[in-house]
Design brief:
237 residues, 26% helix, disordered N terminus, 10-stranded antiparallel beta sheet, alpha+beta
Length: 237
């Protein structure tokens, strides 16, 4: 490591710990206020996703690229752009993942899986330096054994009070055939929003062995409020 990164990290560390500490309640209050402001200005987006699946034990691989259109209500539509690899994986695994997300978005189930006090207990672990600025690290514990909730940790940007990373495992094991699942979600700053950048899942299955699913997001285009109706279909997050 050269002297410049060392000096940068040193400066960041001082900047982090020179800040007056916030309590869990203060952090959550600012998170909710910032999120409400972002939701109020949200008018939708289009983006490209790339799904990658790999199971080395059975030499199964597949890749699917899709265009995602998300409208102001959060409803999503998906259009397959390209695909390769195992037809079984593409239709029975990746296809079902896409269908489940599309259906959940149309049923407005977003509130049930959000990382908010209604769904989680929070415990502050500390404050860490990051590339842009400091981030609060918090332990999250689901209040219900919902398999779509995560037991683990989140990182919260100390300026925007947006979640930048989530690491952990499902609150409930999705299947008796799976011993464990580890997930890592990362988010990126797009305009005034924080949107998904990548999703990594590693599962240890009893029969199939280690299985990895990777989702990368790119090409975000935020919908202009004035022409949202022309750019988006009527039912499309």
């Amino acid at each position: 490591m050269t002297i410049v990164p060392v000096l940068l990290l040193t400066a960041l560390s001082h900047a982090v710990w020179d800040q007056p500490p916030l309590t869990v309640e203060e952090i959550l209050s600012r998170m909710m206020a910032a999120d409400a402001a972002r939701q109020a200005s949200f008018s939708g987006y289009t983006a490209v996703r790339r799904y990658r699946f790999e199971n080395k034990r059975f030499n199964k691989r597949a890749e699917v690229g899709v265009k995602v259109v998300c409208d102001k209500s959060g409803a999503k539509t998906f259009e397959v752009l390209d695909q390769s690899g195992s037809a079984f994986v593409r239709s029975r695994i990746i296809g079902r993942m896409i269908d489940a997300e599309r259906d959940a978005s149309r049923k407005n189930e977003f509130q049930q899986t959000r990382i908010i006090p209604q769904n989680y207990e929070f415990r502050l672990l500390g404050l860490e330096p990051a590339v842009a600025r400091a981030e609060y690290v918090m332990e999250i514990t689901p209040k219900t054994p919902n398999r779509y909730l995560v037991r683990g940790k989140i990182w919260v940007d100390a300026g925007d009070f947006a979640i930048t990373r989530v690491e952990g495992k499902p609150a409930r094991n999705p299947s008796i055939w799976i011993r464990s699942v580890q997930i890592v979600h990362r988010y990126e700053h797009v305009g005034n929003l924080w949107l998904p950048a990548s999703n990594r899942s590693h599962a240890e299955a009893r029969v199939f062995g280690p299985t990895d699913v990777q989702i990368d997001y790119s090409g975000y285009v935020l919908t202009n409020v004035d022409n949202a109706k022309e750019q988006l279909p009527s039912a499309s997050r």
